[in-house]
Amino acid sequence: MNVLLDHLDLFRDGFIGTVSLTAASAALALILGVLIAGFRVSPVPPLRAFGTAWVTLLRNTPLTLLFLVAFFVLPQVLFPGISSYVLGVLALGFYTSSFVCEAVRSGISTVPLGQAEAARSLGMTFVQTLRMVVLPQATRTVLPPLSSIMIALTKNSAIAGAFNNPELFSVQKVLSDKGYNVMVIFVWVALAYLVLVFLISGFFRLLERRMEVAR
Amino acid sequence: MSSSVLFDSPGPKARARNRIYAVAGSAALLGLIAFIVYRLAAKGHLDGAMWDIFNYAGVRNSIAKGLVSTLEAFAIAGVLSLVLAVLLAVARLSDHRPVSWVATGVIELFRAVPLLITIYVLWVGFFTSDPLWAVVIGLTLYNGAVQAEVLRAGILAVPKGQSEAAYALGMSKTQVMTTVLIPQAVRSMLPTIVSQLVVTLKDTSLGFVITYEELLYAGRQMASTILVDGENPYVPVVLVFGAIYVAMCLALSALANWIEKRGRRAKTGIKVAEAQKAAPDMGGGAGPAT
């Protein structure tokens, strides 16, 4: 109990760090994921190939390796001195985007055929069909897998803690380096993650209930 | 919905437009690649000397050693996690309430906590001098919990008539589970189980953080000790090690897809799970939806 009370500000900063890393990379992953899912179903072959390559490559790379790419290769390509927060968000966001893309793509395939056919017969273009007819209806089926992807992202953000980012894993590391009992810290950190996981799954359940429509 | 439903078969105008998009898209992509290559070359990361390091026997040996340690951790953790998964799945389905509560608690706890933190705590608390076992036991606990849920879903998917028929023949509960339910569950869930093994393989790289000398750690070590013209060869090392990881994971994923396709050909038994969709698990301590 004392560990928590004595280092309340450290735990608070760690908690906020985890939340902010998760939120920023979730936003990046959602935007990229939807865009690349659009690429993968588009009528332009090179874009389709690019989408497939993106997903295959990122899904089969360990996240730790992506962090190494972000921290050692990216600064060489762009410019040195990018903050470790931005690099961490990029690695997490790119990795998660491939999973979001697959969720969105399988969501698109659950929308009844007639919807897209009706949109086409009204003369809508591909982008219009996707944006106004198919994607809004796919949202409902995408939400449950998206919820587990976001929970996974929260837990993956722990790896950013090993790369110079203040969050819950680095709290664990700092305090056990100071000689506190690892198991006691572990209980508090695990509790913080459980709270986050429950918050995210509750939020998505709320969204699902609001979007529920009888088909 | 197949993707072709989303757009009309292109007429002459649309074909011309698509061709423009195709050229523009490819040009943008090639431009990006050219920019990356140009920047890397300008900083000297593509020089022959930088890549020459892979010709040295010492470097090759340490890559081979790292690869062996990664595969060692993966093999032990893979086997142990499957054993744990069978135990946990059977325990969770047990008729004895306390047993099933304990199994549920263990499964939920280890799926909710990031794998990195489990491994770190095991390392600091129990296996300070032996990081291999911290990695292996962390991976076993996490993947065992996930695989247990996969197996449980498989066991529940076996038609009820099967176990009823087995009980009617006078089989005991253990016999029904081991000779009727589990074999069918494993057969139908094999693609998902192999996909989860890919996640296990990817997650061995977390040993990097606790200084277990696996592939990624060997690479980092190598890159920070070798100096070529006063610079560390981080870029070549990261690219080569990335290629090794992607190749290993792709091979395992291909195996999962092959098993799925093969299972789909069979006309008997229950439906075989899809390799990709059934496991939306991202590794690094990610939990799938249940």
Automatic annotation (TrEMBL), chain A:
It is a multi-pass membrane protein. The lineage of its organism: Bacteria, Bacillati, Actinomycetota, Actinomycetes, Kitasatosporales. Keywords: Amino-acid transport, Cell membrane, Membrane, Transmembrane, Transmembrane helix, Transport. The chain crosses the membrane at residues 15-39, 60-79, 85-104, 141-163, 183-207. NCBIfam families: HEQRo_perm_3TM. It holds the Pfam family BPD_transp_1. GO terms for molecular function: transmembrane transporter activity. GO terms for cellular component: ATP-binding cassette (ABC) transporter complex. Its main location: membrane. GO terms for biological process: amino acid transport. InterPro entries: AA_ABC_transptr_permease_3TM, ArtM/GltK/GlnP/TcyL/YhdX-like, MetI-like, MetI-like_sf. This is Amino acid ABC transporter permease. Belongs to the binding-protein-dependent transport system permease family. HisMQ subfamily. It is found in: Cell membrane. Residues 15-204 form the ABC transmembrane type-1 domain.
TrEMBL record, chain B:
It is a multi-pass membrane protein. GO terms for molecular function: transmembrane transporter activity. It comes from the Bacteria. Pfam families: BPD_transp_1 (PF00528). InterPro entries: AA_ABC_transptr_permease_3TM, ArtM/GltK/GlnP/TcyL/YhdX-like, MetI-like, MetI-like_sf. One of its GO terms (biological process) is amino acid transport. The chain crosses the membrane at residues 20-41, 73-94, 101-123, 234-259. Residues 67-256 form the ABC transmembrane type-1 domain. Its main location: membrane. It is found in: Cell membrane. Keywords: Cell membrane, Membrane, Transmembrane, Transmembrane helix, Transport. GO terms for cellular component: ATP-binding cassette (ABC) transporter complex. Belongs to the binding-protein-dependent transport system permease family. This is Amino acid ABC transporter permease.
